[in-house]
Amino acid sequence: MSFLQQIAAAERLNQSLLCVGLDPEPAKFPAPWTGDAGRIFDFCAAIVDATRDLAIAFKPQIAYFAAHRAEDQLERLMAHIRRNAPGVPVILDAKRGDIGATAEQYAREAFERYQADAVTLSPFMGFDSIEPYLRWPGKGAILLCRTSNPGGSDLQNRVLADVDGQPRLYEHLAHLAQSEWNRNGQLGLVVGATFPGELARVREIAPTLPLLIPGVGAQGGDAAATVRAAWRGGPEGTTAPILVNSSRAVLYAGSGPDFAQQSRRVARETRDLLNAARGR
Description:
It is a single chain. The protein is an alpha/beta fold and 280 residues long. It has one domain: TIM Barrel, CATH 3.20.20.70. The chain has helices at 3-14, 40-51, 62-66, 71-84, 100-113, 153-156, 169-178, 196-205, 223-230, 248-251, 259-277; strands at residues 18-22, 57-60, 91-96, 118-121, 140-146, 159-163, 166-168, 187-191, 211-213, 232-234, 237-240, 242-246. The strands form three sheets. The chain has an eight-stranded parallel beta sheet. A two-stranded antiparallel sheet has the order 6-7. Strands 10-11 form a two-stranded antiparallel ribbon. Helix 2 (40-51) runs parallel beside helix 4 (71-84), helix 2 (40-51) packs across helix 11 and helix 8 packs parallel to helix 9 (223-230). The longest helix is centred in the last third of the chain and has 19 residues, at 259-277. The model has no long low-confidence stretch (mean pLDDT 90).
């Protein structure tokens, strides 16, 4: 299946809009693993196993693995997810943004080495930084558009000369992703939950693209407002996929030996809150 088909299938299978972010910080691991980077795989695999029937996707952030020389553990984790949660797609959160032969190597890293179903990208070097990823049939490329961090406004909210009726940079990017850049139907957008009005604006410009939405949970985004702004669908399912990401709130819900069960509890509560906002 393509990435878009995988999202739709996972939403139906798990009745979920929740993307579980995997950002392992050994200093926050429960005892006796606290501070032990050699336990990154064990920690993340436990979270995956506890939430695999509650998630629409998993999103490992590559920097948390690379900083601890744990890329081999990331490879093991990706294989573990494919074996133990085969109905849940995996997004490699890498935010790559280079061109030419370098972009080709980053695409190989994401889709061959790690076997990701999709990867996050920074599009600010233009379409030739995106195109190498689109040579992989069925894989997803999710572009930073209107991010949840305060500094995102430094560039993304800048007013341009009116281009195609989309005067702000993030609006113009959403328009490109919905239209000429989306040659094979592989693109999605990253839009933060902390800006629900702008999230709604992106959905207006890009009515069919999948949206990866960080910022719910520890960053303070409102789950119900997020769904109202971005989800489109009915009893038959979605016409505009959203993947609402929560990382720290799920990962570090508990610090004792039952940490995975506590993560499951928070994941279920978040999933149910998102479903309530769409009338499920």
